[in-house]
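re: ur msg from earlier - yeah i can do the PPE complex, just paste it... oh wait u already did. ok heres what im feeding in:
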Amino acid sequence: MPSVPKTEKIWMNGQMVAWDDAKVHVLTHALHYGTGVFEGIRCYDTAKGPAIFRLEDHLKRLFNSGRIYHLQSPHPIEELHKACAELVRLNKARSCYLRPMLYRGFGPMGVHASGNPTHALVVSWPWGAYLGDKAIKEGIRATISSWRKFPNDSMPAMAKACGQYLNSILAVADAQNNGYDEAILLDHGGNVCEGTGENIFFVKDGTLCTNDASSSILMGITRDTVLRLAADLGLPVTIKTIAVGELYSADEVFFSGTAAEITPVREIDRRELSGGRPGPVTKRIQEAYFEAVLGKNKKYAEWLTVVK
Ligand code: PPE
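and the outut:
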Protein backbone atom coordinates (compact mmCIF):
# COMPACT_ATOMS: atom_id res chain seq x y z
CA MET A 1 0.00 0.00 0.00
CA PRO A 2 1.28 3.54 -0.78
CA SER A 3 2.18 5.88 2.10
CA VAL A 4 -0.16 8.62 3.17
CA PRO A 5 0.10 11.53 0.73
CA LYS A 6 1.22 14.83 2.21
CA THR A 7 -1.53 17.34 2.92
CA GLU A 8 -1.31 21.03 3.72
CA LYS A 9 -2.14 21.18 7.44
CA ILE A 10 -2.44 19.10 10.60
CA TRP A 11 -4.30 20.34 13.68
CA MET A 12 -2.23 20.02 16.87
CA ASN A 13 -3.33 21.35 20.25
CA GLY A 14 -5.48 24.12 18.84
CA GLN A 15 -3.16 25.17 16.05
CA MET A 16 -3.03 24.49 12.32
CA VAL A 17 0.52 23.28 11.71
CA ALA A 18 2.25 22.67 8.37
CA TRP A 19 2.56 18.95 7.52
CA ASP A 20 6.36 18.96 7.88
CA ASP A 21 6.22 20.65 11.29
CA ALA A 22 3.75 18.22 12.88
CA LYS A 23 6.32 16.38 15.00
CA VAL A 24 6.48 14.78 18.44
CA HIS A 25 9.39 13.95 20.75
CA VAL A 26 10.77 10.40 20.89
CA LEU A 27 9.86 10.31 24.58
CA THR A 28 6.19 10.83 23.77
CA HIS A 29 4.50 8.50 26.25
CA ALA A 30 2.09 7.15 23.63
CA LEU A 31 5.00 5.99 21.46
CA HIS A 32 6.32 3.84 24.30
CA TYR A 33 3.09 2.56 25.82
CA GLY A 34 0.30 3.13 23.30
CA THR A 35 -1.41 5.61 25.62
CA GLY A 36 -3.75 7.27 23.21
CA VAL A 37 -7.30 7.04 21.95
CA PHE A 38 -8.33 7.85 18.43
CA GLU A 39 -11.10 7.96 15.85
CA GLY A 40 -11.44 7.26 12.17
CA ILE A 41 -14.02 9.35 10.33
CA ARG A 42 -14.80 9.64 6.64
CA CYS A 43 -15.69 12.73 4.70
CA TYR A 44 -17.49 12.09 1.40
CA ASP A 45 -17.88 14.11 -1.75
CA THR A 46 -21.60 14.92 -1.86
CA ALA A 47 -23.68 17.17 -4.14
CA LYS A 48 -23.75 19.79 -1.33
CA GLY A 49 -19.96 19.67 -0.91
CA PRO A 50 -17.66 17.58 1.26
CA ALA A 51 -19.69 16.05 4.10
CA ILE A 52 -18.30 14.41 7.24
CA PHE A 53 -20.25 11.30 8.20
CA ARG A 54 -21.50 11.05 11.81
CA LEU A 55 -18.85 13.46 13.09
CA GLU A 56 -20.66 14.08 16.38
CA ASP A 57 -20.93 10.36 17.15
CA HIS A 58 -17.25 9.76 16.43
CA LEU A 59 -16.13 12.63 18.64
CA LYS A 60 -18.42 11.45 21.44
CA ARG A 61 -16.83 8.01 21.21
CA LEU A 62 -13.37 9.62 21.27
CA PHE A 63 -14.21 11.42 24.49
CA ASN A 64 -15.70 8.27 26.00
CA SER A 65 -12.58 6.26 25.09
CA GLY A 66 -10.60 9.07 26.71
CA ARG A 67 -12.64 8.85 29.92
CA ILE A 68 -11.81 5.17 30.25
CA TYR A 69 -8.06 5.85 29.91
CA HIS A 70 -7.99 9.09 31.95
CA LEU A 71 -7.17 11.02 28.78
CA GLN A 72 -8.99 14.30 29.13
CA SER A 73 -9.00 16.41 26.02
CA PRO A 74 -7.32 19.80 26.56
CA HIS A 75 -9.86 21.16 24.04
CA PRO A 76 -13.66 20.99 24.21
CA ILE A 77 -15.49 18.70 21.80
CA GLU A 78 -16.80 21.71 19.84
CA GLU A 79 -13.22 22.72 19.06
CA LEU A 80 -12.37 19.29 17.67
CA HIS A 81 -15.56 19.45 15.66
CA LYS A 82 -14.43 22.76 14.15
CA ALA A 83 -10.89 21.44 13.62
CA CYS A 84 -12.20 18.51 11.54
CA ALA A 85 -14.28 20.78 9.29
CA GLU A 86 -11.45 23.32 9.02
CA LEU A 87 -8.97 20.61 7.98
CA VAL A 88 -11.27 19.44 5.20
CA ARG A 89 -11.40 23.05 4.04
CA LEU A 90 -7.67 23.82 4.33
CA ASN A 91 -6.56 20.53 2.81
CA LYS A 92 -9.03 21.12 -0.03
CA ALA A 93 -10.38 17.61 0.16
CA ARG A 94 -13.57 16.57 -1.61
CA SER A 95 -13.34 13.33 0.32
CA CYS A 96 -10.90 12.19 2.98
CA TYR A 97 -10.33 10.25 6.19
CA LEU A 98 -10.04 12.15 9.47
CA ARG A 99 -7.99 10.85 12.39
CA PRO A 100 -8.51 12.71 15.69
CA MET A 101 -6.40 11.52 18.62
CA LEU A 102 -5.90 12.24 22.33
CA TYR A 103 -2.56 10.99 23.59
CA ARG A 104 -0.01 11.24 26.39
CA GLY A 105 2.94 13.41 25.46
CA PHE A 106 6.42 13.91 26.86
CA GLY A 107 6.77 14.01 30.66
CA PRO A 108 7.85 11.53 33.32
CA MET A 109 8.57 8.07 31.88
CA GLY A 110 7.08 4.82 33.16
CA VAL A 111 3.67 3.26 33.16
CA HIS A 112 2.45 5.70 35.79
CA ALA A 113 1.08 7.86 33.02
CA SER A 114 -0.78 10.58 34.86
CA GLY A 115 2.11 13.07 34.99
CA ASN A 116 2.26 13.25 31.20
CA PRO A 117 0.26 15.97 29.48
CA THR A 118 -2.64 14.94 27.22
CA HIS A 119 -2.40 16.34 23.70
CA ALA A 120 -4.96 16.45 20.93
CA LEU A 121 -4.45 16.24 17.19
CA VAL A 122 -6.44 15.75 14.01
CA VAL A 123 -4.93 14.61 10.73
CA SER A 124 -6.73 14.24 7.41
CA TRP A 125 -5.66 12.36 4.33
CA PRO A 126 -7.22 10.91 1.22
CA TRP A 127 -7.99 7.21 1.85
CA GLY A 128 -9.57 4.99 -0.78
CA ALA A 129 -11.18 1.61 -0.15
CA TYR A 130 -9.57 0.10 3.00
CA LEU A 131 -9.04 -3.36 1.56
CA GLY A 132 -8.93 -2.18 -2.05
CA ASP A 133 -11.62 -1.36 -4.66
CA LYS A 134 -11.84 -5.01 -5.61
CA ALA A 135 -12.68 -5.91 -2.00
CA ILE A 136 -15.75 -3.64 -1.98
CA LYS A 137 -17.02 -5.00 -5.31
CA GLU A 138 -16.05 -8.65 -5.17
CA GLY A 139 -15.51 -9.38 -1.49
CA ILE A 140 -12.54 -10.64 0.49
CA ARG A 141 -11.17 -13.90 1.86
CA ALA A 142 -10.99 -14.08 5.65
CA THR A 143 -9.59 -16.52 8.17
CA ILE A 144 -10.24 -17.20 11.84
CA SER A 145 -7.16 -16.00 13.74
CA SER A 146 -5.26 -18.07 16.27
CA TRP A 147 -4.85 -14.83 18.23
CA ARG A 148 -7.78 -14.32 20.57
CA LYS A 149 -9.44 -10.97 21.06
CA PHE A 150 -8.59 -9.55 24.50
CA PRO A 151 -11.57 -9.94 26.81
CA ASN A 152 -13.41 -6.91 28.16
CA ASP A 153 -11.89 -7.58 31.59
CA SER A 154 -8.32 -7.28 30.21
CA MET A 155 -8.85 -4.23 28.05
CA PRO A 156 -12.04 -2.33 27.27
CA ALA A 157 -12.86 -3.37 23.70
CA MET A 158 -15.38 -0.55 23.46
CA ALA A 159 -12.53 1.97 23.73
CA LYS A 160 -10.70 2.82 20.54
CA ALA A 161 -7.28 2.92 22.16
CA CYS A 162 -3.92 2.96 20.33
CA GLY A 163 -2.17 0.16 22.25
CA GLN A 164 -5.16 -2.16 21.91
CA TYR A 165 -4.45 -2.38 18.19
CA LEU A 166 -1.38 -4.59 18.69
CA ASN A 167 -3.87 -7.45 18.99
CA SER A 168 -5.30 -6.55 15.56
CA ILE A 169 -1.83 -6.08 14.08
CA LEU A 170 -0.75 -9.60 15.08
CA ALA A 171 -3.92 -11.11 13.68
CA VAL A 172 -3.93 -9.32 10.33
CA ALA A 173 -0.22 -9.97 9.75
CA ASP A 174 -0.70 -13.71 10.19
CA ALA A 175 -3.82 -13.71 8.02
CA GLN A 176 -2.05 -11.88 5.20
CA ASN A 177 1.12 -13.97 5.50
CA ASN A 178 -1.12 -16.98 5.07
CA GLY A 179 -2.69 -15.57 1.92
CA TYR A 180 -5.93 -14.16 3.35
CA ASP A 181 -7.10 -10.56 3.25
CA GLU A 182 -8.41 -10.20 6.78
CA ALA A 183 -8.63 -11.98 10.14
CA ILE A 184 -11.64 -12.66 12.33
CA LEU A 185 -10.92 -12.79 16.06
CA LEU A 186 -12.67 -15.03 18.56
CA ASP A 187 -12.99 -14.64 22.32
CA HIS A 188 -11.70 -17.17 24.85
CA GLY A 189 -14.97 -19.08 24.65
CA GLY A 190 -14.46 -19.55 20.91
CA ASN A 191 -17.22 -17.13 19.94
CA VAL A 192 -16.84 -14.54 17.20
CA CYS A 193 -15.80 -10.99 18.13
CA GLU A 194 -14.89 -8.94 15.08
CA GLY A 195 -12.37 -8.25 12.31
CA THR A 196 -9.09 -6.45 13.03
CA GLY A 197 -10.64 -3.10 12.13
CA GLU A 198 -14.26 -3.99 11.39
CA ASN A 199 -17.43 -5.36 12.95
CA ILE A 200 -18.97 -8.47 11.47
CA PHE A 201 -22.46 -9.36 10.23
CA PHE A 202 -23.88 -12.52 8.75
CA VAL A 203 -27.12 -13.31 6.95
CA LYS A 204 -29.00 -16.59 7.37
CA ASP A 205 -32.42 -17.25 5.84
CA GLY A 206 -33.02 -13.54 5.31
CA THR A 207 -32.15 -12.50 8.87
CA LEU A 208 -29.21 -10.23 9.57
CA CYS A 209 -27.17 -11.08 12.65
CA THR A 210 -24.41 -9.37 14.62
CA ASN A 211 -23.08 -9.34 18.19
CA ASP A 212 -22.87 -6.54 20.77
CA ALA A 213 -20.68 -5.11 23.56
CA SER A 214 -20.90 -8.36 25.54
CA SER A 215 -18.61 -9.92 22.89
CA SER A 216 -15.51 -7.68 23.31
CA ILE A 217 -16.06 -5.54 20.23
CA LEU A 218 -15.68 -1.91 19.36
CA MET A 219 -19.25 -0.67 19.13
CA GLY A 220 -18.90 0.49 15.56
CA ILE A 221 -20.67 3.54 14.26
CA THR A 222 -20.95 1.82 10.88
CA ARG A 223 -22.46 -1.18 12.71
CA ASP A 224 -25.04 1.20 14.16
CA THR A 225 -25.63 2.69 10.70
CA VAL A 226 -26.20 -0.80 9.25
CA LEU A 227 -28.73 -1.59 12.00
CA ARG A 228 -30.67 1.57 11.17
CA LEU A 229 -30.52 0.86 7.41
CA ALA A 230 -31.69 -2.72 7.99
CA ALA A 231 -34.62 -1.50 10.07
CA ASP A 232 -35.56 1.00 7.36
CA LEU A 233 -35.30 -1.73 4.70
CA GLY A 234 -37.54 -3.97 6.79
CA LEU A 235 -34.85 -6.61 7.24
CA PRO A 236 -35.18 -8.74 10.37
CA VAL A 237 -32.15 -8.43 12.71
CA THR A 238 -30.93 -10.64 15.56
CA ILE A 239 -28.27 -9.48 18.02
CA LYS A 240 -26.59 -12.36 19.77
CA THR A 241 -23.37 -14.27 20.44
CA ILE A 242 -22.02 -15.76 17.21
CA ALA A 243 -20.46 -19.22 16.92
CA VAL A 244 -17.81 -19.92 14.26
CA GLY A 245 -20.02 -22.56 12.65
CA GLU A 246 -22.67 -19.92 12.03
CA LEU A 247 -20.19 -17.91 9.96
CA TYR A 248 -18.95 -20.95 8.06
CA SER A 249 -22.52 -21.95 7.18
CA ALA A 250 -23.95 -18.45 6.68
CA ASP A 251 -25.63 -17.37 3.45
CA GLU A 252 -23.64 -14.14 3.48
CA VAL A 253 -21.03 -12.43 5.65
CA PHE A 254 -19.82 -8.84 5.56
CA PHE A 255 -17.61 -6.47 7.54
CA SER A 256 -18.60 -2.93 8.54
CA GLY A 257 -16.30 -0.08 9.46
CA THR A 258 -15.53 3.52 8.66
CA ALA A 259 -12.42 2.60 6.70
CA ALA A 260 -13.75 -0.75 5.39
CA GLU A 261 -17.26 0.66 4.74
CA ILE A 262 -19.34 -2.41 3.78
CA THR A 263 -16.91 -5.10 2.67
CA PRO A 264 -18.40 -8.44 1.57
CA VAL A 265 -16.64 -11.62 2.75
CA ARG A 266 -16.73 -14.21 -0.01
CA GLU A 267 -14.80 -16.96 1.76
CA ILE A 268 -13.77 -17.92 5.29
CA ASP A 269 -11.09 -20.60 5.72
CA ARG A 270 -11.74 -22.15 2.30
CA ARG A 271 -15.47 -22.27 2.80
CA GLU A 272 -17.17 -20.30 0.05
CA LEU A 273 -20.00 -17.93 0.98
CA SER A 274 -22.87 -16.96 -1.33
CA GLY A 275 -21.22 -18.63 -4.29
CA GLY A 276 -17.95 -16.77 -3.76
CA ARG A 277 -19.46 -13.35 -4.50
CA PRO A 278 -21.30 -10.64 -2.53
CA GLY A 279 -24.80 -11.82 -1.63
CA PRO A 280 -28.07 -9.94 -2.28
CA VAL A 281 -28.60 -8.67 1.28
CA THR A 282 -24.99 -7.47 1.50
CA LYS A 283 -25.47 -5.62 -1.77
CA ARG A 284 -28.68 -3.98 -0.55
CA ILE A 285 -26.99 -2.81 2.64
CA GLN A 286 -23.93 -1.64 0.74
CA GLU A 287 -26.08 0.33 -1.69
CA ALA A 288 -28.09 1.93 1.12
CA TYR A 289 -24.86 2.73 2.97
CA PHE A 290 -23.28 4.53 0.02
CA GLU A 291 -26.53 6.41 -0.60
CA ALA A 292 -26.49 7.59 3.01
CA VAL A 293 -22.83 8.66 3.18
CA LEU A 294 -22.96 10.30 -0.24
CA GLY A 295 -26.01 12.34 0.75
CA LYS A 296 -28.24 10.64 -1.81
CA ASN A 297 -30.95 9.75 0.70
CA LYS A 298 -32.57 12.69 2.50
CA LYS A 299 -33.65 10.40 5.33
CA TYR A 300 -30.07 10.34 6.64
CA ALA A 301 -29.20 14.01 6.13
CA GLU A 302 -28.77 14.54 9.88
CA TRP A 303 -25.73 12.24 9.78
CA LEU A 304 -23.86 14.61 7.48
CA THR A 305 -21.82 17.66 8.47
CA VAL A 306 -21.49 19.57 5.21
CA VAL A 307 -18.29 21.61 4.96
CA LYS A 308 -18.96 24.87 3.15
N1 PPE B 1 -13.79 -2.85 15.22
C1 PPE B 1 -12.53 -2.41 15.24
C2 PPE B 1 -11.51 -3.17 16.00
C3 PPE B 1 -12.20 -1.24 14.56
O1 PPE B 1 -10.95 -0.79 14.59
C4 PPE B 1 -13.20 -0.54 13.84
C5 PPE B 1 -12.87 0.69 13.08
C6 PPE B 1 -14.51 -1.05 13.85
C7 PPE B 1 -14.77 -2.20 14.56
C8 PPE B 1 -15.64 -0.34 13.15
O2 PPE B 1 -15.95 0.87 13.82
P1 PPE B 1 -16.60 2.09 13.05
O3 PPE B 1 -15.57 2.68 12.19
O4 PPE B 1 -17.07 2.99 14.13
O5 PPE B 1 -17.74 1.53 12.26
N2 PPE B 1 -11.56 0.79 12.59
C9 PPE B 1 -11.01 2.06 12.20
C10 PPE B 1 -9.51 2.03 12.02
C11 PPE B 1 -8.95 1.13 10.98
C12 PPE B 1 -7.45 1.30 10.85
O6 PPE B 1 -6.82 0.43 10.21
O7 PPE B 1 -6.90 2.28 11.35
C13 PPE B 1 -11.74 2.66 11.01
O8 PPE B 1 -12.45 1.97 10.30
O9 PPE B 1 -11.62 3.87 10.81
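cool cool. Residues 40, 168, 194, 197-199, 218, 220-223, 256-260 surround PPE (CB under 6 Å). ping me if u need the other ligands too
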